[in-house]
Amino acid sequence: MTKREYGHFIDGQWREPHQVIERHAPGTGELVALVGAGTGAEVDDAVRAARREFDRGPWPRATGFERAAVLNRVAGLIDAHAGDLARLDAEEGGKPIRLAQGDIATAATLTRYAAGLAAQMHGLTYTNNGPDFTGLVLREPAGVAGLITPWNFPALILCQKLPFALAAGCTVVVKPSELTSGSTLRIAGLYAEAGLPAGVLNVVTGDGRAGAALAAHHGVDVLSFTGSTATGRKVIDAAKGNLKRLSLELGGKAANIVFADADLDDAAEGVIFGAYFNNGECCVSQARLLVEESIADEFLAVLTARAARLRVGQPLHPTTDVGPMIHSRHLATVLDHVARGRAQGARVAVGGARGTGGDLDGGWFVQPTILDSVTPRMDVFREEIFGPVLTVSRFRDADEAVELANDVEYGLANSVWSKNVDTALTVSKQLRSGTVYVNTTIDAPPTMPFGGYKSSGVGREMGQAGFEEFTELKSVSIRTGKRSGSFPFGGETL
Ligand code: TXE
């Protein structure tokens, strides 16, 4: 692996950092990157450049077609550099390379979709406000957007935000995760290559201190954050100084609800994919299986055998299914969850320990794990584990399944497996989550808005709704002709 050194990208220039953060590859522990530790001063410079471009620059004033042309060029460049981008995310984040390649393909698709939204950005006209009145509802860019992204989908989550903000005419400051900044900086370079004016997109790397400075900055009008619920709460506090608009995509504890009338082969594949996709380090990870009692033992036997066959390995290996945890502290946290689950009465059906042996020894691996006999009182049922750990609980009927699924503080996504349309739709409507997958899992196109109920966040990403997060509405009420009568003030005409 090659060690990379990154600077900040501010006002179209690469800037040397004063201090750096070391990034070690999760698969091997090798030093792979030195990332700039941004401070309030760099955030200030970046916001100042974005502010200048928003207030006086060409980007917010360009036509939707002009903005779309730049975004479409960027999408082409992302495709052209897909191999490098995927490798950065796999090396720095530990995600299996096949998944990283999928992330980059989707990043390009999201960018093309956002280009289409730029081209058709429009407001409304009201012609029913009386004969002398025309009401215009203008849709305007919201201003300077701050984007704070996490480490689990570095390029993908960036592209759930950035092209939408730019499509709307916002100017942007991004603060990527200090653990996985490479692909964000590379993509910023692709925007410059595609002709985005200097200062419209700025990237300041660094840890939570740089994120906190961006969240608090009065020059930022709208902030879009993806990360933990705990940090989301801090972002709300920091953002209140200038009451900036917030969109927060936070933690989750999704359930895969499997009814006896599902296609069980299909459901088993879906449950395995949902639980172990991206090493389980995924906000929509389907970390809880709720299975109908009558098929539970037989279904669990299939899952256990399937989980044991998953290939745990180095992220760059083409056949790896499950890679390492993001860092050693997180490895310890995931193993601690398993230990607490056991202590509280869960039974380990498979896995349950650190992944070791061969080339796993230098990295932070966890065996794909299934904890059976999990009840709602246990911590593993309620807390986001964010690792390759699936919990199993049984239900008697649809009412109990819904009650169990909703009995957590989160509400990001759930899946329902049933071939009975009554069951599938009735349960979907009762689930308190922003997304429900039916007979599929972790599978939603960019047209569909994505976000959380309850402690999973506020606002939406992707779809028309995700675009609108980066816009403001302005009502312009126009009177034509001479007003008959007076304004209703004292009954006299001035
Ligand atoms: O997240 P943080 P962490 C969950 C998951 C994981 C846990 C901790 O359970 O185990 O969070 O991960 C920046 N003001 N998710 O500690 O802290 C930080 O630098 C502003 C779920 O890595 O939320 C990074 O860029 N920003 C999640 C980003 O916030 C701050 C994805 C996310 O980091 C900040 C990641 C502050 N005070 C973790 N402190 C999902 N929804 O998918 C940190 N940051």
- The level 1 CATH classification of the largest domain is Alpha Beta
Mean pLDDT: 96
CATH architecture of the largest domain: 3-Layer(aba) Sandwich
Strand order in the largest sheet? 15-18-19-14-13-21-22
Largest sheet: 7 strands, mixed
Please compute the radius of gyration using only Cα atoms.
24 Å
Strand content: 15-25%
The CATH superfamily label of the largest domain reads Aldehyde Dehydrogenase, Chain A, domain 1
The span between the termini is 79 Å
Count of discrete alpha- or pi-helical segments spanning 4 or more residues: 15
Bound molecules: ligand TXE
Described by the principal axes of the CA atoms, the overall outline is globular
CATH topology category name of the largest domain: Aldehyde Dehydrogenase, Chain A, domain 1
Helix content: 25-40%
Count of all domains: 2
Low-confidence spans: pLDDT under 50, at least 5 residues?
none
Description:
With 494 residues, the chain is α/β, with parallel strands linked by helices. The protein has 15 helices and 25 strands. The strands form seven sheets. It has a seven-stranded mixed β-sheet, with helices on both faces. Strands 10-9-8-11-12-24 form a six-stranded mixed β-sheet, with helices on both faces. Helix 1 (40-56) runs parallel beside helix 7, helix 3 (82-93) runs antiparallel to helix 6 (182-193) and helix 7 (208-216) runs parallel beside helix 8 (229-239). The model has no long low-confidence stretch (mean pLDDT 96). Bound molecules: ligand TXE. Ligand TXE binds at residues 148-152, 175, 177-178, 207-208, 211-212, 215, 226-228, 231, 234-235, 249-251, 283, 330, 384, 386.
